[in-house]
Amino acid sequence: MASDVEANAAAEASEEKNWRRKGKHDKEKPWDEDPTIDRWTVEKFDPSWNEGGLLEKLIFVINTVDSSSKRHDELHHAQVVEIENGISNASIETGQGANQIRALKRPGDTRWGSHFASVYSLIKMFGVVYSAIQDMAADGSLGSIRADADTSFSYLSSFEFIFILCLTKEIFEITEILGQAFQKKSQDIVNAVCLVSSTKECLQELRSDDGYQQFIDTVIEFCVSHSIDIPDFEETYILRGGRARHQPDQLTKEHYFQVEIFRATLDTQLFELNRRFNEKVEGSMTVSTTRKTRDPYIILKARDLIKLLSRSVPAPQAIKVLNDEMNCDIIKIGSIIRNKERFVKRRERLLGPNLSTLKAIEILTGCYILVQGNTVAAMGTFKGLKQVRRVVEDCIKNIKHPVYHIKELLIKRELAKNPALATESWDRFLPNFKKKNVKQKKPNTKEKKQYTPFPPPQQPSKIDLELESGEYFMSDKKKSAKKWQDKLDKQSEKSEEKKRKREAAFVPPKENTQSTKTTNDNNGIADIAKSLKKKTKKLRNSEAQENVKIESYVASNEESHSKKKHKSSSM
């Protein structure tokens, strides 16, 4: 026990003795925990050229040289001088359309091929650009532009920059035809597969030892022609701007340029092409006849088979199209509607929940249906394919829901069992589904004012209003007194209005004299009617005895009644 305690105390003392404050370089490293990590491996060259890569340097150089009209003219003048010197020295070939004055092209992110044009233009005009930037860096009157020129000159005079620039040009020259071909809307699949395979072969050829040797020779020749220093490839390549203590000596510059840049970039290109266009996708199908071919219509059947297989129809199901009674139909639904959201909803309507709607259509029509992307592949008889096309087009065009078509097909299926109805029309048995369009609310549109070329009249300002009322010439005391008086007037008006509202509740309502007059008139009419009935009864009884005319009798009674009414009113 005593020996263990003494050992622990000695270990703690040694740790305290060796302890020191940690600096910024003493952070935890990933290789401290994992011994399998080699911390002195060279980081591979990133072929995407992100921040600080080739494209950023290329844009910086072009902007420095060709950012103003004055520099643009100077660049053109330098090109003219270079062409004249080349023609006089017989180092440049002459001919129709040759030796044209070029312009530097900036790489655009939205157009394919623009990077290749930018790299190609810089390589063709390298001598002119190199001399122009050298003159700008030596000119002391430019100020801040001189610093950009110094940076651009350091880029152009670097062998590594020239190496990557030439490598980029070689890769773009190989892949340019493939990129331009893929931009076309209509492309032959066989031609596209041939272009991919030829591009792979060219890249693989460039990656070989002979390809690298030819490439490095062209780079060295380019550097010699433009007086750029060529490094010694046998020297040790120094990492991170300075020699590390534990850096291996076998890492030469030749290894860095050949393995870490050249082959790493080409491997990345080949990996992308193999990943996107692998052997499973590249396969092609051809149709050919033999001496045993007796039915020429089988060629069209083979064409239909290829169509179905290209639309992901399973091979056992697609082979059935070779039978005589089996046919296929490819319904293109992608071009029927432009709105993507509506297209997706209507396609889901055709499928139904858990593919129930699609299964019901398959059972009723006797066809195999597969909805794949922007097409619907159907296999069956001509009658069934005709029904399927009608259901699909009505669903995508929003004419009729598939459920209504299913109901119609069920009714027709039951009617077909009755032989008595074979020659009759079935329209009276089929339901008529009317589409109900819900009226949408009309947007509130403001009425447009009548256009006048004259501006609206200017509103009077506060000073103008004071000048009109005379308040502008009053003293501050009088202005305050007037404000106070206006306030009192408003208060008195409001109080009178409130008093008027309170007193309105105690005002008696007005009597309606017209209603009393109408009631009296109605009572008088009723009395006249009763008296006339009594008189007619008496007249009928006495008509046989006395020959009296009814009209004179009634008139006399009316006169007497009016006299009585007049007397009563006078009293």
Please outline the helices and strands.
Blueprint: H1 2-18, H2 30-33, H3 54-65, H4 69-88, H5 114-124, H6 126-138, H7 144-156, H8 159-182, H9 189-207, H10 209-225, H11 253-276, H12 279-282, H13 298-310, H14 315-318, E1 327-332, H15 340-351, H16 356-365, E2 368-372, E3 375-380, H17 382-396, H18 402-415, H19 462-469, H20 476-504, H21 513-543, H22 550-570
Antiparallel strand pairs: 1-3, 2-3
Helix pairs in contact: 3-7, 5-8, 6-7, 8-9, 8-10, 8-11, 9-11, 16-18, 21-22
Can you put this structure into words, describing what you see?
With 571 residues, the chain is mainly α. The protein has helices at residues 2-18, 30-33, 54-65, 69-88, 114-124, 126-138, 144-156, 159-182, 189-207, 209-225, 253-276, 279-282, 298-310, 315-318, 340-351, 356-365, 382-396, 402-415, 462-469, 476-504, 513-543, 550-570, and strands spanning 327-332, 368-372, 375-380. It has a three-stranded antiparallel sheet with strand order 1-3-2, sandwiched between helices. The radius of gyration is 51 Å and the shape is flat.
The poorly predicted ranges are 15-25, 36-51, 563-571
The percent range for strand residues is: under 5%
The SSE order reads HHHHHHHHHHHHHHEHHEEHHHHHH
Radius of gyration: 51 Å
Please count the helical segments.
22
Mean pLDDT: 76
Number of strands: 3
The rough form would be described as flat
The largest pleated sheet is described as: 3 strands, antiparallel
Helix content: 55-70%
Ends: how far apart?
A: 148 Å
Query: What structural class do helix, strand and pairing data support?
Result: mainly alpha
User: Reading side by side through the largest sheet, how are the strands ordered?
Assistant: 1-3-2
